[in-house]
UniProtKB/TrEMBL annotation, chains A, B:
Residues involved in a 1,2-diacyl-sn-glycero-3-phospho-(1D-myo-inositol-4,5-bisphosphate) binding: R232, K234, R273
Localisation: Cytoplasmic vesicle membrane
Molecular function (Gene Ontology), one example: phosphatidylinositol binding
SUPFAM superfamilies membership: PX domain (SSF64268), SH3-domain (SSF50044)
Entry protein name: Sorting nexin
Organism, scientific name: Cyprinus carpio carpio
Domain SH3, first and last residues per copy: 1-62
Claim: Membrane is one of the keywords in the record: yes
Length: 542, 542
């Protein structure tokens, strides 16, 4: 007998994963309830069969606890989305910057660092801690399962050069990130001698649960070890959550490419996601603080399954997260900044990132419209011009008049040229506008993180401002107040270093993308001119 | 005391003529009733003063006769519009070709040529004979007046080389137009050794009625005599009416450029009209029959005012008009065609001109849309792209980060480049699409004449078909029927010669205009590529 069940929540299948999209209220037939891993195989009314999360459907199998974990999973959003609550992320600065933020490292009396628990208070405004996503013991089983798959499909020998990373990871000490005076530009992070990068490539389809559930695994090869490791999208997502937890207060951690990005074809989708994961990873590699962090090194160059599992659990238990990160930042040889200066810098960066956010969004809007025109009405028009010439040519051919073959051939060629141009116009955005849009999209993501990062600083500044009152009412001692100011100064140096990092990357990225864009545009117009020159040469001079 | 009057009919002022546009029912103030020449100076409610035809306004001065003449004048339209009655001009062939056409040269018993009066019967379907426009004695006075103006503003000495033309004009003989066998293409007109052309240039403002009424006079210089003559638009219009009357049954006489073409600026309007008059005159010059006709020669190379006036009156009394023109056409050394062949040729030309009419109209539609896009949304988009780059550049300038001047300068330059491109895009249609459109517009006009020309032939064919019945019922003799067939054959030769003339001109015109179009398009795209290359070079490679 078939078991029917009602769908409780919308679920959108991830392409290429054997999943089935279902809508809330839909009735589906359960075709296999023994799939395991939290999945059930089901069939919808159109006869389509696929996997659906078991706790998305109304069956007696599901406990209330499971619901919660799965709802959290689907509710997980980009950091900036979480804190902004869907409103203008910049609005927090127009109102009371410290509103709703009550507890932070910079404002706490010395020695009362509370680590992870207190850092969570930062994620106000509807934030669900990412721990809810991948932390539970039951989920760990799934991870273990996967690692068996990875082992069977990938296979990686004992690392020879990976020892350095392992030592870092294994050590019990807390890594210190240094800020130096970097010449004219001011405070900068300490950059490594060798700039890390990695290549994300070779997406391969894997499967588990006896082939019922498939997934895409990407090969990630760091330029340091040159040894590839395999990662699924959910591993990238895990890394993102770890980095956001650990560095989000000091460093903008851009969202991963959309989980639900859909291409019309699976291949297109995978290619696009890979390209964006590559962009994200390269940006992370370029960051001196992130790239040298234990968790990032683990992701890029774990030796084996055991190494990964140990590192993973350790990373999840890391207590130096949230504002605690500032306790690991050391402004080397830099004098303490007074509050006015800290405030000015913060305001300046706020203004700049806000203005750039507007500028980038404007360019994206214009670019999107241009994309639409280039792939829609414009090529259609060139096609119609081409057809009109060819049509006239065939009318002329029917004239019965001798000796006009030269004209009709030329007119046909001109018509075909405009049809070619139509196609070129339609395909061009993929060759140039695409990269301009991708880069600006990346920057939009990065800039979207700044309100949160700057918000942390603003809140700290407000607390320091309240310091005198707290001293007067005997709530903190004078030396505790001095320590608060010093911490605000450290935060400001971190922000300045981060802004300088941002600026130098921005200059590099925009130079590169504009060069690429204009180079392709030149080629495009030159090719059109060349095609038209050919068409022109076919008309005879009289 | 001011005299007020009500406007009886809409009147649209011709630009640069000191005229005042008025609407039916509007009340105007008569400021000067003694202007003369059929005009009254009036002022509207907005205080604008100008000339209005006196019989367009309700005053006791106007007689019912005057009304008629003026209504005819404003009702005058292009020939094809007259016969089509506003419907599809091709429809006549889908219905009964001879319907409503009852009287023509080809169908008449030999020797009963009725000349002008009978030819008028061709202009069925609401046709008002152009004679109503400029024939009346009162109008002649105006012409005389004008000639005084022409004399004073232009001035032309006794012609030295004009004697040949004068002899032609003065002679009482009827000119015979010959059709030859022209090699592979079939029957052709006899072409002159020297191809006539003329230059329409140097538009000058003249005035009359003590400066109250102004007009534009164009200098027309034939390549034969190289002696300029002056003509106003109304003279061209007079020529058009004469040519239409005389040759319209055998040769498509395209309309003059619209009388009411309006440019936003007077200069633009005059330039546009001149360009189109030039196109029209060149086309007439290229035609062997038209260019050698007395009336055309008169227009191009009259010796003096007296010569002009004599020639003008003679032309208006010319009786070889309408279908009578075929009596002056001599197929030299060509055998009589049988009716089947005549009919086949006629059908073939009908199909071709109809198909070409569709093709030309399609190209015009596409071209119009492209024009709109090139002058509207497309440059706006390039402008917005340019602004977005420049905007980003100015945001970057505000970063306070040292050493990004190279990027911001380059980004500004790129932005300006796209603004330049916007302007280039907007101005380009005037440089290329314009001529493509003008040529196709000319052809649309020409092709619009063919239904009438072909209609004359179809009617003649139908009459010949009825010939046997007429012989049987004793209405015509057998030899009269033979003469009818012979005349149909002559008409067919004329049509074939005309089609061959049309084809050879068409091949020349389309080769020329496509070359011109593509050449300008190549330049356009090359210039864009060049500009973008410059913009590209300003970004520094890292």
């Amino acid at each position: 007998m078939e078991t029917k069940a009602q769908v409780l929540y919308d679920f959108t299948a991830e392409p290429g994963n054997n999943e089935l999209s279902v809508r809330e209220g839909e009735t589906i037939t359960l075709t296999n309830q023994n799939v395991g891993g939290g999945w059930i195989e089901a069939k919808n009314s159109r006869g389509e069969v696929g996997l659906v999360p078991e706790d998305y459907i109304e069956t007696p199998l599901i406990t209330p606890d499971n619901y919660k974990s799965h709802i959290d999973q689907t509710d997980q959003h980009c950091f900036s989305k979480m804190t902004s609550n869907g409103n203008d992320p910049w609005a927090v600065f127009d109102n009371n910057a410290s509103g709703g933020v009550s507890n932070n490292w910079a404002a706490q009396p010395e020695g009362t660092e509370t680590g992870k628990t207190s850092s969570n208070a930062w994620h106000s405004g509807g934030h669900v801690h990412p721990q809810a996503y991948q932390g539970a013991g039951a989920e760990d089983d799934e991870w273990d399962e996967e690692w068996d798959d990875v082992k069977s499909s990938g296979g990686y020998a004992e690392s020879e050069a990976g020892e350095g990373g392992a030592i870092n990871r294994g050590g019990a000490h807390v890594r210190i990130y240094t800020v130096f005076q970097g010449g004219e530009v001011g405070p900068v992070w300490a950059y490594p001698d060798y700039q890390l990068d990695c290549v994300v490539a070779d997406p391969k389809k894997g499967s588990k649960m006896y082939g019922l559930k498939s997934y895409i695994e990407y090969q990630v090869t760091p330029t340091t070890t040159n040894k590839p490791v395999n990662h699924r999208y959910k591993h990238f997502d895990w890394l993102y959550e770890r980095l956001l937890d650990k560095f989000g207060s000091a460093i903008p951690i851009p969202c991963l490419p959309d989980k639900q990005v859909t291409g019309r074809f699976e291949e297109e989708f995978i290619k696009m996601r890979m390209e964006r994961l590559q962009g994200w990873m390269s940006r992370m590699c370029r960051h001196p603080v992130i790239s040298s962090s234990e968790v990032f090194q683990l992701f890029l160059s774990y030796k084996d399954e055991k190494d990964w599992k140990t590192g993973k659990r350790k990373a999840e238990k890391d207590e130096t997260v949230g504002v605690m990160i500032f306790s690991t930042i050391e402004p080397e040889g830099l004098p303490d900044l007074d509050l006015t200066e800290v405030e000015q810098k913060c305001e300046q960066f706020n203004r700049f990132t806000r203005a750039m956010d507007d500028g980038v969004k404007d360019l994206l809007t214009v670019g999107n419209e241009h994309w639409k025109r280039c792939t829609g009405p414009l090529p259609k028009e060139y096609q119609r011009i081409g057809k009109a010439f060819q049509n006239l040519s065939s009318v002329f051919t029917s004239s019965g008049y001798e000796g006009e073959a030269a004209l009709t051939d030329a007119l046909t060629a001109a018509g075909k040229t405009y049809e070619d141009i139509a196609q070129m116009v339609a395909e061009q955005p993929k060759k140039d506008l695409h990269f301009l849009m991708e880069t600006n999209n990346e920057y939009k993501g990065l800039l979207g993180c700044f309100p949160d990062t700057i918000g942390v600083h603003k809140a700290a500044i407000e607390k320091v401002k309240e310091g005198d009152k707290l001293v007067a009412t005997g709530k903190i001692t004078t030396s505790e107040k001095t320590a608060m100011s010093k911490r605000a100064s450290t935060m400001s140096y971190a922000l300045q270093a981060e802004m300088n990092h941002f600026h130098s990357n921005r200059i590099y990225d925009y130079n590169r993308v504009m060069q690429q864009y204009l180079e392709q545009q030149v080629k495009f117009y030159e090719m059109i001119a060349e095609k038209l020159r050919n068409a022109h040469s076919q008309f005879t001079t009289m």
